[in-house]
Design brief:
Largest sheet: 5 strands, mixed
Strand content: 25-35%
Number of strands: 25
Distance between the termini: 36 Å
Radius of gyration: 27 Å
Shape: globular
Number of helices: 12
Helix content: 25-40%
Length: 430
């Protein structure tokens, strides 16, 4: 399966995403730049230059609008500042700014505005494939919906600054066009580093991630850290929201190409987004993914209560629940209760563990999981259907029959399980 994996350990912005994908198809660089600069976006000039961050060479995409570049104003609080903060303007990693957003607008054309319908009209007239234009409109609508939600307005009431609009359209067009050219079967990504601190906007100083960005990142695993600044921008968040199918550690894949999209800010860590193009042969090797392990130690619950919570967790969607005897403080014998679940079901499992056990704390661990491909089909026998489960991958092939079906026939026909199993295998072999 042709896959692009995005390493967002230093966030995501439209220009960084575009630059990383451009490095995956360097043979099309001249065509891409010519295409971008002939779209007819007023005053827009797109260039791709080599850049170095912490010794790593990659590509920096620069989008200027009538010679001006968008800027993000991160807020840094220096010692002795009495909490008010010194404002330092730093070139951003390339994100959308509008009158309801998080940016600082520069350039003589910044007084003009555009509505979502204006932007859709502009996109419809670009010389791009229809699929690319549909993707662009969908991404821009996500941004508009996020802004509308944050500011308590309707989508039609949101108006974007002209400079920010042209800058964002170029970033979104570039990324969507390169996805179209690379044609991956899926795009995966790591959890997203959003940065920390504050950023100045038209309405004052806001926390990182800025409100619209945070709204776009709902349902996506994100984290902060020691890096002070805005690492994930609204444009980057919208592109991830629209194109990425899953967020996980890098899966087992055969990597063919690697691209580095560079941001403009300098940090102690390399300010880049890495894209890896490769293949996951799921038909042959099964599947990979992640699984959440929740665990707690218990020494003051009855056996009945312990059995009840295990049944409840499984009924609510836990993948596996098991117990292990352990020794606890004061030499008390105890039980280690472990619940395996998906990332999406983690909150529900945590709630149930706190409600139905006596634990005061739950430990979490994220594990990579390798699974065989599984399939189920019914085998018709003289005594009714029996479900046959097959699994394959990683050079292994297995088959077994559903115990409950075998047991039902054994009870009804006064046979042993082995006799029923032999009867089913005879039917399958005929």
């Amino acid at each position: 399966m042709k896959t692009i994996y995005l390493d967002c350990s230093m966030g995501a912005a439209g220009d960084m995403l575009t630059a990383a994908l451009l490095e995956l198809c360097q043979e099309k660089k001249e065509w891409f730049l010519e295409k971008m600069n002939s779209l007819g976006l007023p005053g827009v000039q797109v260039t791709a230059e080599k850049a170095v961050k912490c010794g790593i060479t990659g590509t920096h995409m620069e989008v200027t609008v009538f010679g001006a570049e968008e800027e993000s104003l991160d807020v840094h609080r220096d010692h002795g500042d009495e909490g008010h903060g010194h404002i330092h303007g730093e070139n951003s990693q390339g994100h959308v700014h509008n009158e309801n957003s998080h940016g600082h607008i520069h350039g003589e054309h910044s007084h003009a505005h555009a509505s979502l319908s204006d932007i859709a009209h502009r996109i419809s007239h670009l010389d791009l494939p229809g699929e690319v234009k549909r993707d662009m409109e969908a991404v821009y609508r996500l941004i508009a919906e996020a802004e509308a939600q944050v500011h308590g307005k309707t989508v039609n009431e949101i108006h974007f600054h002209e400079v920010g609009t042209a800058d964002a359209i170029a970033d979104i067009a570039g990324f969507c066009l390169l996805v179209h050219e690379l044609a991956p079967e899926q795009i995966l990504a790591s959890p997203v580093h959003v940065g920390s601190g504050q950023v100045r906007c038209a309405h004052g100083i806001l926390p990182v991630p800025a409100p619209a960005t945070a709204h776009l990142l709902r349902g996506i695993p994100i984290y902060g850290g020691s890096v002070r600044g805005e690492l994930c921008t609204p444009t980057g968040a919208a592109l991830l929201h629209y194109f990425v199918t899953a967020y996980t550690d890098m899966p087992v894949m055969t990597v063919e190409k690697i691209g580095y999209g560079m941001g403009k800010k300098d940090f102690d860590q390399a300010n880049c987004l890495r894209a890896l193009l490769g293949r996951l042969d799921r038909e042959e090797d099964g599947e990979t993914g992640e699984i959440i392990e929740l665990a707690c130690n218990l020494d003051d619950m009855t056996a009945e209560a312990m059995g009840f919570v295990q049944e409840l967790l499984l009924a609510e969607g836990a993948l596996e629940v098991y117990t292990i005897p352990v020794g606890m403080k004061k030499n008390r014998p105890g039980i280690l209760l472990t619940c395996m679940c998906t990332r999406e079901n983690r909150g529900r499992m945590t709630q149930l563990l706190f409600r139905h056990t006596t634990t005061l704390g739950i430990r979490e661990q994220v594990n990579r999981r390798y699974t065989l491909k599984r399939r189920e089909q019914a085998v018709n026998t003289p005594y009714g259907p029996v479900r046959e489960k097959t699994s394959s991958g990683y050079g292994v092939a297995r088959r077994k029959y559903e115990y409950e079906d075998l047991a039902r026939i054994a009870r009804e026909q006064d046979l042993s399980l082995e006799e029923v199993k032999g009867m089913v295998e005879t039917v399958v072999s005929q």
